[in-house]
């Protein structure tokens, strides 16, 4: 039995852009679902589970950034912002709120397809190699449900971006991970916006892991070099 192709949700109020993206994605083997308004998209989420979402920020009925943030905290889907807002601060804000990537209009549809493939390929490869649940220092991370469980049994949801970063650390425990390696692993674009987004995600992970920012026990900063995850890790 073969599984269905990944489902990509497209939220943009311009029909031509939705059609352009849908044509490119379907030609590449994906399924698509298009929406012109946030309310339609949110209603559809009650009956479908997309693998990735393409979100325009200039929506007629909802603040796009608020929607991105809500999706990042409640959904395991990869989130790629597609927007005409080209300022660095807009990109930084989008990534800080939980988006995995940011594409500026006008764009080449082939680039969007490539970015989606990069976002979806890595978790599938890692799942086949390592399983979906990691255990470390009394914690467990369930990458099927995007859920972090503490030693006290308290459950905390992970955004797709946070889960992707945590998995990068768990795949290489007790090894230095440089900023360049993080860039390659997380599929970002070099620049201040991605650097700041990485710092924010690490800070959020530390908070969810109950870390003391002045003396972290699990994610240690090696200034000028990168980061080391200090715990042993088991997979099942």
Automatic annotation (TrEMBL):
Oxidoreductase listed as a keyword: no
Sorted UniProt keywords: DNA-binding, Phosphoprotein, Transcription, Transcription regulation, Two-component regulatory system
Ranges for domain OmpR/PhoB-type: 131-231
PROSITE patterns in alphabetical order: OMPR_PHOB (PS51755), RESPONSE_REGULATORY (PS50110)
This protein's record includes keyword Transcription: yes
Superkingdom of the organism of origin: Bacteria
InterPro entries: CheY-like_superfamily, OmpR/PhoB-type_DNA-bd, Sig_transdc_resp-reg_C-effctor, Sig_transdc_resp-reg_receiver, WalR-like, WH-like_DNA-bd_sf
Annotated positions of the 4-aspartylphosphate modification: 56
Pfam families cross-referenced by the UniProt entry: Response_reg, Trans_reg_C
DNA-binding region: 131-231
Residue span, Response regulatory domain: 7-120
Protein name in the entry: Response regulator transcription factor
Species: Paracoccus niistensis
């Amino acid at each position: 039995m073969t599984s269905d192709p990944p489902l990509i949700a497209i939220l943009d109020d311009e029909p031509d852009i939705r059609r352009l993206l849908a044509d490119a994605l379907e030609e590449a083997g994906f399924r698509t679902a298009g929406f012109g308004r946030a309310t339609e998209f949110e209603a559809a989420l009650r009956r479908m589970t997309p693998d990735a979402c393409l979100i325009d920020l200039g929506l007629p009925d909802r603040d796009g950034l608020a929607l991105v943030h809500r999706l990042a905290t409640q959904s395991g889907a990869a989130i790629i912002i597609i927007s005409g807002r080209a300022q660095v601060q807009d990109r930084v804000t989008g990534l800080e709120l939980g988006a995995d990537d940011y594409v500026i209009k006008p764009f080449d549809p082939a680039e969007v397809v490539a970015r989606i493939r990069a976002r979806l390929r890595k978790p599938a490869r890692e799942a086949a190699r390592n399983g979906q649940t990691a255990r470390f220092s009394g914690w467990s991370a369930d990458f099927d449900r995007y859920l972090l469980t503490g030693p006290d049994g308290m459950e905390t949801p992970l955004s797709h971006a946070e889960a992707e970063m945590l998995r990068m650390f768990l795949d290489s425990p007790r090894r230095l991970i440089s900023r360049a390696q993080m860039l390659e692993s997380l599929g970002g674009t070099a620049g201040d916006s991605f650097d700041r987004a990485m710092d924010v995600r690490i800070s959020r992970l530390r908070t969810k892991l109950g870390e003391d920012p002045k003396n972290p026990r699990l994610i240690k900063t090696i200034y000028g070099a990168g980061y080391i995850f200090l715990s042993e890790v088991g997979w099942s």
